[in-house]
Structure formats: structure tokens, C-alpha cells
Amino acid sequence: MSGLDIGIIVFYMAGMLFIGIYSGKKQQDSDDYFVAGRKAGVFSITCLWLSSWIGGASIVGTAERAYSMGITAVWYVVVIAVSLVIFAFTFTGTIKRLSTKLNLLTYPDFIESRYDSKTRMVATICTILGMIGFVASQFLAGGSTLSALTGWDSKVSLIVVAAVITFYTAFGGLLAVTYTDWVQTVILLLGIVILGVPLSIMHMDGGISAIQSLPDSYMNLGAWGWPSIIALGLTTLFSFYTNMDGYTRCIAAKDVKTSRRGSLLAAAGIFIIAVSATFLGLSTKVIMPDLPDSRNALSYLIIHIFPQGLRGIVVVGIIAAIMSSADILMLTASTNLTKDIYQRYINRDVTDKKIRHLSTCCSFGIGFVALLFAMYRQDIIDVLFIALTINSAGLFLPTVLGVCWKKANSSAAFYSAACSLAVVLFWFLGNALKWGKIFETDSFWPGLAVSALLFFPISIWGRQTPEEKAKLKVFQSAGKQGGKEE
């Protein structure tokens, strides 16, 4: 890349660091740090949703799959858009109303306000493990992209991306994430959709119709394998209901209407980006059919077709997508450690100032652990799928049915979530150590099966305490209430 392009990238990263320092000085309390003061508008909520779900796996991973498999790659991001629409209409209002009424700050807060502290601990563990996996996948995507485009060593690139994201997130909190995501969303759309797609069409002989020259298998929507596509779709949908960063967006919104509108606008943007990233992968296959490494397909395309200067802007757009996903995920895990473990179980009387300082330290620690995980495991989508499964398989039923099913009780929630988590981790271990063909099955299915087999019988035959019954009434009221906010 030219000195101008590298200069644009360096300037962008320096700008993100400046925003982090600026945001840190504006914070007044932990609400500012964790949920941006609970007053984010529609544009901010839209950007926060887009930035968390459109990251390295969505852009780099989708283009890679499209290059090697065809249009079936579009499923990865399409299921995100569909899942977000469903979540927006069914659960955003409930979360916002309950968070306002009960002063909830985190997803484990939500779980304990319906069940008990034991179930809260399981939810906290699942969330922390899942968030570390999510962050690691974004570090991987950022490192590989930066390395391919700049020629820097892959480990150096990985460390640079991890360091910048960790620094501005640790010091700036959700205010920094919100401010940086405004910039990053605009750059992402400019680089990938407005510039990337038209330029790739211009460089294909015959224009867009050149896609038809690819093998027939590239036009098969099910080439990924329908069992894997269905598992991915359900895992993604379920994770919206159990992923703490989604709760953070709902809580940060100034009201229910803002939360829902921001979610729906983000879903539309996600769909556009899904189609664009898939098209770029297919375009790369047409223009450069024999690349040595499909993982860097998008990077090769940028180097090949983009002029000097614009190349740097598009690279910044990709890095923006990666960084804007990693920052909120890192902050989510930090919130779990400080609010859901330290303040909840170790020091209930901790001051607000100490919580914010502790959160800064936790963000650095999470960034370091995610960096180590990224160095150990190199497949972006594989790492992301692990994180999605840990978050969704065991927690979906207790979360959703806890709002609308009066028989759901704490024992059912705890045992189903804890046993499901154990099965998922055991399944991953069995697959990694090649224990047998059965472990090649997506771990989501055995995890969900164990959760269902325990949750329903224990709920039906178990009993609720008077305290649980009182909590249920609050939840059902929030689920049904429309109010002026709707």
C-alpha cells in the first residue's frame, strides 16, 4: 500500500484513541460508562446495533465464504438481520421497561430479577466466555486484514488492532463506543457499499453479469449445508435474547420507541451489508480465481482494484467494522466482571468511582485474554460460532419463557442453563480432541436438547416460592404493557 493509504489508517486509529480519552473525561457516573446515561437516540442505537453485529466475521468472513463457496455465504449476515427484526418486535420493549422499573444494568441483572443468584452466576459465566470469544474473532479479522493490506507481520498487526480497541474502550466506556460507532458506521457504509460494490463491478469483464460465469455450485443457497445453516439461524436468533450487548442497547435507549426503531433501522442496514459483502467475495472469485489463501480474499480485491487514497478509506471501513464490534463486546464482559461479580458477590458497597476504575482494568484484562485466544485459534467464523453457542444454547428457554410462562422456576432455569453449558463445553472439547464422529455435530443441538429436557419437566413438576411469584408478576406486566412509550 502507498504511504497515503497507510497514513489514512494510522490517522483513523489515532482518532479513535483521542475519542476514547475525550469520552473518559465526560463520564460522570457508571451509568454514563456502561449505558451512556440511558438517553441514546435512534441514530445512536442504530449505529450501536450495526457496529456490534457487522464486524470482522460479517465482512471479512462472509467475503471469504463467498469466494470459496458462493452465495450461500449470505446466510451468515441475513440471519442476523432477520433475528434482529424478530427481537425488535418481541423483546426490546420488555427489556427497556423492566430496566427502567427495576433499575437493571446488565443481562444477569435481568436473570436474577426473575430467578435467583445461582442462575445469575451461570448467565454471567456464559456471557463472559461468549464475549471473550466474540472479541477474539474481531481481533483475528482485524489482524489478518491489516497484515494483508500493509505487509506488516501478522502477529504485529493482531497486537496493534487489539491494543487500539482495548485502549479506547477501557478509558471511554459506552460513551466512547457510541461516539466512535457514529464515525465507524458512516465509514463502513462508504467503504463497503458505496465504493466497494461499484468499483468491483467496473473491474469485472462484462460487469455484474460476469458473476454468472462462476460454477453452478456458487449459485446454490444451500451449499453451506442446511443443517449448519439452520443451526446458525437458531443460534443467532436465540443469542439476541441472551446476549448482553443487546440488552445494553435496549437499556441505553431513551425510551421503548427509540429502542425498537433503532433496532429495525439497523436490521435494514445489516441486510444491505450482507448482500454487499457476499457480492465482493464473488467479485474477487471472478477477478482473481486462483488466490493462494481465501481468508484474505477481500484484502486482495482492495489491493487490486482500488486507487491510492480510496484504498485507505476502504481499509478503514473494514477495520471500523471490526473495531466497532470488538469494543462493545469488550465493554460487555467488563461490565459482567465488575457489576455482576465484584459488586454483586465481593463488595456491595464499592463506590461508583472505584467501579469505573475497576472496569478500565477489566477491559485491559479481557483484551489480553481475547488476544491470546485469537493467537491460538485462527478461524474467524469458527471462533464466532463457539461464542454464539455458549451464549444461546442453555439460556434461551429460561430467558424468554421466564417472561411469558408462569410455571418457569429458578431450579429449572439453573439446572437447564448449567448443564447445557457443561455439555456445550464438553462437546467442543470432544470435537477438538477428535473423540468420535458424534462430536462433529454442531454443539448447539446437544446443548439445546439438554436445556429443554431439564427446563420443562422441572418447571412443570417444581414449585415457585412466593418471591418468585412476585417477580413473575412484574415480568408479565412489563411484557404486556404498552404505555405511552409504544
From TrEMBL:
Q: Which Gene3D superfamilies does the entry link to?
A: Sodium/glucose cotransporter
- Record's CDD domains? SLC5sbd
TM region(s), chain numbering: 6-22, 42-61, 73-95, 121-141, 156-179, 186-204, 224-243, 264-288, 308-334, 355-377, 383-405, 412-432, 444-462
Q: How does it sit in the membrane?
A: Multi-pass membrane protein
Give the record's keywords alphabetically.
Membrane, Transmembrane, Transmembrane helix, Transport
List locations, semicolon-separated. Answer: Membrane
Chief localization class?
membrane
An example of a Pfam family matching this protein is SSF
Family affiliation: Belongs to the sodium:solute symporter (SSF) (TC 2.A.21) family.
This chain's protein is named Sodium:solute symporter family protein
Q: Name the source organism.
A: Blautia caccae
Query: Which lineage?
Result: Bacteria, Bacillati, Bacillota, Clostridia, Lachnospirales
